[in-house]
């Protein structure tokens, strides 16, 4: 059974995406924004696209992910714009949003590194229109940690990503790791509708093959799936609004 952390669950998330025209390094010890009161704040990069090692804070595509217990905190961070993420100054493209979770399952260590569990409080409802999916994966780095299994999982993610160009209804796909792999890494995908996401995820293909492989071999200690709808958003990603498909 998934355990719930003792800290308060988040009700909203903020995402700031930033793309640079070259690989850059960003201080891995970024403090939380000067506004708002996020329950968790993580800055990471897409190492695979940049060709850098997972967990190394060097990349060209970056994310600042915030978890918020209330709507006011989330909107304060969003409204602050670039002031909330000054280390993204100089990016050639950016996109940000306040997101509300409408589906959440699995375990994550973002609120409590020692006790992974649910991190969002959700009132489930049916998706209408475009949405964002964030999945996470994590390992416990103790004497039981199996590097070969972790590498197997990472290789599977890259195989899936290599098949996603041109997927119907997919606005964008990316994967981010956080410094030193201390916080569970994520994938972020943008979808036109529920039908397109389900067609990709559950029909025969590389994604379903890798999911089945993960369940059979247990190549990670925990994972999660969260579906979000946007409340407010601004900017572009890959030259357009990734949720306007």
Notes on the protein architecture:
By secondary structure, this protein is α+β, with helices and mostly antiparallel strands. The protein has one domain: Alpha-Beta Plaits (2-Layer Sandwich). The chain is 20% helix and 33% strand. The protein is built from 5 helices and 8 strands. The chain has an 8-stranded antiparallel β-sheet. Strand 6 and strand 7 form a beta hairpin. Helix 3 runs antiparallel to helix 5. The longest helix has 15 residues. It is globular, with a radius of gyration of 17 Å.
**CATH architecture classification name:** 2-Layer Sandwich
**Class inferred from helices and paired strands:** alpha+beta
What is the highest CATH level, the class? Alpha Beta
> If strands are numbered along the chain, what order do they take across the biggest sheet?
2-3-1-4-8-5-7-6
Domains, number? 1
SSE arrangement, N to C = EEHEHEEHEEHHE
Number of helices, where a helix is a run of at least 4 consecutive DSSP H or I residues: 5
CATH overall fold name: Alpha-Beta Plaits
**What spatial form do the alpha-carbon principal axes imply?**
globular
What summary fits the major beta sheet?
Answer: 8 strands, antiparallel
Mean pLDDT: 92
Helical proportion, percent range:
10-25%
Radius of gyration: 17 Å
β-strand number: 8
- Low-pLDDT stretches are 1-5
**N→C terminal distance:** 37 Å
Strand content: 25-35%
Produce a short descriptive summary.
By secondary structure, the chain is α+β, with helices and mostly antiparallel strands. The chain has 5 helices and 8 strands.
């Amino acid at each position: 059974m998934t355990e719930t952390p003792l800290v308060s669950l988040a009700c909203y998330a903020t995402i700031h995406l930033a793309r640079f025209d070259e690989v850059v390094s960003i201080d891995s010890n970024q403090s939380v924004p000067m506004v708002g009161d996020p329950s968790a704040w993580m800055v990471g990069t897409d190492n695979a696209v940049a060709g850098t090692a997972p967990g190394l804070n060097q990349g060209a595509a970056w994310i600042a992910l915030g978890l918020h217990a209330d709507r006011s905190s989330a909107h304060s961070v969003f409204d602050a714009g670039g002031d909330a993420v000054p280390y993204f100054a100089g990016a050639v493209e950016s996109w940000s949003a306040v997101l509300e979770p409408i589906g959440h399952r699995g375990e994550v260590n973002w609120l409590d590194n020692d006790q992974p569990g649910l991190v969002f409080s959700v009132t489930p409802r049916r998706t209408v229109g475009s949405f964002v999916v964030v999945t996470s994966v994590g390992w416990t780095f103790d004497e039981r940690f199996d590097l070969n299994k972790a590498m197997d999982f990472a290789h599977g993610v890259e195989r899936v990503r290599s098949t996603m160009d041109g997927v119907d209804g997919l606005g964008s796909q990316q994967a981010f790791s956080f410094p030193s792999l201390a916080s569970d890494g994520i994938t972020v995908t943008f979808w036109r509708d529920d039908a397109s996401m389900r067609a990709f995820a559950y029909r025969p293909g590389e994604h379903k093959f890798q999911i089945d492989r993960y369940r059979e071999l247990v190549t990670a200690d925990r994972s999660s799936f969260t579906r979000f709808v946007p409340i407010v958003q601004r900017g572009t990603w890959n030259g357009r609004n990734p949720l306007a498909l």
